[in-house]
Amino acid sequence: MSGKKRHDVIQVLSEHLSVDTELNVNPPVDRSVRLSPEVLAFLANEGIDPSELLQQAAVHVPFVDDTLPLRNYFISSSHNTYLISWQILGRASAEAYTHVLSRNARCVEIDVWSSSKGPIVTHGYTLSRSVPFSSVCDAIGTAVTAGNKDTVSDVDNGNDWPVFVSLECHVPVEKQDEIVEIMKKAWGEKLVTKADIASLPSGDVVSPRDLKGRIVLMVEYYPDDIWSDTSAIMPSCGTPVLSDYDHFSYEANPQLMKPHRHTRIAEGLADLGFYARSMKPDKGWEHAVFPSPPYPPNVMLNIDESSIVSLIPQKLADLVVSAKRYFRRVYPSGLRLNSSNLDPLKEWESGTQIACLNWQHYDKEMQLNEGLFAGTMGYVVKPPLEPTREKRSIRFTGEIMGVSSLPLPEGRETFLAYVSAELLQVTAGKQRWRTAKTESSGAGGVIDFTWRESFEWQFSADELAFLRLQVYRSDDCLASFCARISQLQPGWKLIRLLNAKGKHTGATLLCRFTVTSHGPGGLW
Fold first, then answer.
1. Which DSSP symbol is given to 63?
2. In angstroms, rounded to a whole number, what is the distance separating the alpha carbons of residues 346 and 523?
3. Helix, strand, coil percentages, rounded to 5, for the chain
4. What is the average pLDDT across 179-196?
5. What is the pTM of this model?
6. Which end of the chain is more exposed for a tag (fewer CB within 10 A), N or C?
7. Helix, strand, or coil here: 285?
8. Hey, which residues does 400 pair with through a beta bridge?
């Protein structure tokens, strides 16, 4: 693919798949926003300057310490990164990696298979289309910013926090040296190799700062002694032999050859996975220990969504403890054929560091992901998660004033609308509230709505409690907002509302939130 064509593809992906959640963390100062006459009158009565209010962030993201051990972080993660549509009928694209890394994803996935033209990246045994493995590696290498652990990272200067690459290797052992050489050539000194180990801390204490600007490869590990017991958990691993394809376009994959199972990983490839040997464990893993030896150092547990969700109701404490011992990556169930997403909130509450999501849609789960990671470099320090610890009682009050400049749906000039508020947390379930429906008429392609309503919730202090606001016309969600309650700023704020694709189209919501607490200790 030519440089210009690649640039054009990246631009298209950015236009269609990028989201504007950062606007509520870092409001732009050079973008004009229209406010309704009712909102302007209310602000004037309150003695608030609208221009100043528009420059105030609705969400404050605290500084993220980069010196803690890696297991102490949640990491923004992409599943089936190469796909730009559904995983069964999707198109693979190297530029998809450029896109998600530009959005501060810090863990991406590669499914690599053999073909008659060399290694390719595709979703095996589906109609998904392929892309050369070398093109994917080149895209990742170019997107990873060289690190400087002596300076504070800045989004404007590039994100140099380490990138994890989850390598799902479907290449036979005798051909794995080829993919090793491709990765080394594309990533150079950015790739963490066995030669780096002497100069880097051990896996128990290595931090993001130690690995700034580096690529950390996750390499599979298949323990011989439990292989026969894990067939129900571990997927088949096939070796496709594909016919010729055009390197400058994306062609559908032909029928794949009969699958085989890996029994080992080539030594050269295993050496690249020192900090993350990915293992799909046997049942009972939530309270198991994997000593080295016989296991390799730095085992990372690679868990199917359905396996962990079934454990959360009864074994949440065990899962939290396990995540203190081992890195954990959870990926969506194979039954999610339309690329729908797992609930990342459940995974984070259980201690999972890497909850993998499909980034092709701005659904509720991706809104939560954006709510956690917006304004960061893709890493967030895990809060205390022990389910038995004493928690303060939180009283949360919300006041909804009005919406300005909501784009008019096609063919509509007048309609009823309401605001829905939803508390999202795992341990205490959900709480919901909504305003009354109010009718308004639009002009100039936009419409305004005015309320003056309030609500109050009480719940146990939880740093992983999220507020989700949505503006509805009947059952049609027109705009939304999602953020951690602990990061909402006090006082009246103008929230930039995003449409169903995560874009800000000019709509704002004037609202105010108050958090008070009762009990020992700090607020959270």
1. P
2. 23
3. 25, 30, 45
4. 95
5. 0.90
6. C
7. helix
8. 453, 511
